[in-house]
Amino acid sequence: MNEHFLTDIEIKQFKCFSDFKASGFKRVNLIGGKNNIGKTAFIEACYINVHSVNIDKILTAIINAKYSREFLNIAANIDSIDNQRYLDSIGNYSAKSNLKNIEFAAIKKSGIKEYKVGVDNNNNVINANYLSIDANNIYNIMYIDNFGCDNGGLIRLYQAVQKQDQENQLNYYVHEFDGSIESFKVIGDKPQCKTNGEYRYITEFGDGLRHYISIICAIYACENGYLFIDEIDNGIHYTQLDRLWEIILTLSKKTNCQVFAITHSKEMLESFARVAEKLNDQDISYTLLVKNKQQEIKSIAMDYEMLLDSVAQGHEVRGW
Q1: Which residues pair with 114 in a beta bridge?
Q2: 86, 176, 215, 310: most buried by Cβ count inside 10 Å?
Q3: How far is 202 from 133, CA to CA, in rounded Å?
Q4: What's the predicted TM-score (pTM) here?
């Protein structure tokens, strides 16, 4: 296990989580569970934790997590980006992992709003009137929502592919996904795919292609870092799942990138186990989120052997 990987986390307070623990994370980690149990909030908590190297990066990660939830409203001009409102909406975040102990709280007392922010017990209190956010992301820690990256994000990711001279490899992967597509590239400020000898904007293709390309490019960009993927199978046909996992497992190992992904799909889970067995890649885990009789969220961790055994026995491992 690489020393920079997240292996365990205790979420003391964040959204639907209170006194929650999960452990056993490997290089590639799949998260499952019923709808509205907190899978997205869970990977948001992990993302915030690994991104929080200082106060600016804590605030940036919290804002990014909220932005991904609001993306559709922003794109439709229903909402606007408001960093301070995003921070206020989170309320409290408290999580300790094998890497960091992070605290954040938005506090309003006697008409004064303050933010309490701490990294490894080094706490600071900031008056909201003097809050200055240097919202710069850590380049190799990424969160991809269920629609993939927008054009600007995809252009930035593609630059990582270019820097590593992997354009031909990416084109090979894209052609596997859709045999009618000859290549992918950025022309001007537009991601485009070549089909029938003509380049067309990626928006003319299905959401699955954008999501697929976003994931692959992001693994290159997140070398020695972390990639968090919400609803990894969104828009991707079940016949493509094995190949997607082969790419993720192979590239994440090559780039030393730790991956966390969410699925609702039994087919995606079975594909994950099947491909890991095919590649004999034991650096994987499956984390199932469930609720006990007291309606508390708990985690069930499965390593390579446990997951393969559960799938082989036909056990229900998606949630109950």
Answers
A1: 107, 127
A2: 215
A3: 33
A4: 0.92
Q: Which pLDDT band, with edges at 50, 70 and 90, does 69 fall under? A: low
Domain ranges of the chain: 1-136+279-305
Rounded CA-CA distance 108/148 in Å is 36
Helix (H) or strand (E) holding 148: none
Q: Which residues contact 66 (CB under 8 A, 6 or more apart)?
A: 86, 89, 90
User: Tokens for 311?
Assistant: 């799938």
Q: How far apart are CA 59 and CA 65, in angstroms?
A: 10
- Taken as a whole, the chain contains a residue count of 320
Query: Would you put residue 36 in left (φ > 0), alpha (ψ -120 to 50) or beta?
Result: left
Residue 38: pLDDT above 70? yes
Amino acid at 245: W
Indicate the helix (H) or strand (E) that contains 188. none
Distance CA 254, CA 191 (A): 25
Rounded distance between C-alpha atoms, residue 276 and residue 260, angstroms:
15
pLDDT of 76 reads 40
Q: Dihedrals φ, ψ of 80, to 5°?
A: -130, 160
| 133 contacts 59 by C-beta, under 8 angstroms | yes
Distances (CA, A) of 77 to 70, 118, 143: 11, 34, 22
Say whether 287 sits in a helix, a strand or coil.
Answer: strand
One-letter identity of residue 236: I
SS (H, E, C) 296-315: CEEEEEEEHHHHHHHHHHCC
User: 167-177 vs 151-163: helix axis angle to the nearest 10?
Assistant: 130
User: Alpha-carbon Rg of the chain, whole angstroms?
Assistant: 20
Beta pairing class for 226-229 and 141-144? parallel
Return d(Cα 134, Cα 57) in angstroms, integer: 8
Cβ–Cβ contacts within 10 Å for residue 232, how many? 26
Give the amino acid at 48. Answer: I
